[in-house]
């Protein structure tokens, strides 16, 4: 069950799985781990935007979109959510357990790092 930490809603596995299974374009799920971690194991079709690249790209994100961040354990993704809020993007959530808590299907290999942030929004229906 979700809870609040530092003003960021924390989602558990069941909540994220329900969102993932709906296959809707919103909220936008983003993996913020390092490429090596992503290649090893990631949630299918969830794009990678490494945490360290976000500060230089924060202005590219739409302020009115909804985002859920994913990392290994939920710590880095929580920090990304806080960073988004500090930069005026309020509708953010964190997958509290991270990939350690993800019990469903995964992929390995490279699906690709997001190079064009606008591409995140072109998939919206």
TrEMBL record:
InterPro entries: GlpE_sulfurtransferase, Rhodanese-like_dom, Rhodanese-like_dom_sf. Signal peptide: none annotated. Transmembrane segments: none annotated. Pfam families: Rhodanese. SUPFAM superfamilies: Rhodanese/Cell cycle control phosphatase. PROSITE patterns: RHODANESE_3 (PS50206). Residues 23-107 form the Rhodanese domain. CDD domains: RHOD. This is Rhodanese-like domain-containing protein.
């Amino acid at each position: 069950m979700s809870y609040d930490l530092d003003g960021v809603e924390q989602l558990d596995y069941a909540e994220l799985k329900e969102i993932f299974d709906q296959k809707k374009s919103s909220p936008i799920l983003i993996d913020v781990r390092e490429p090596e971690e992503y290649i090893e194991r990631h949630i299918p079709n969830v794009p990678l935007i490494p945490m360290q690249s976000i500060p230089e790209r924060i202005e590219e994100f739409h302020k009115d979109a909804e985002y859920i961040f994913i990392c290994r354990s939920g710590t880095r993704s929580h920090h990304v959510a806080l960073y988004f809020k500090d930069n005026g993007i309020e509708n953010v959530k964190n997958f509290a357990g991270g990939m350690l808590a993800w019990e469903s299907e995964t992929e390995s290999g490279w699906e690709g790092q997001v190079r064009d942030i606008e591409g995140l929004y072109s998939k919206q229906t």
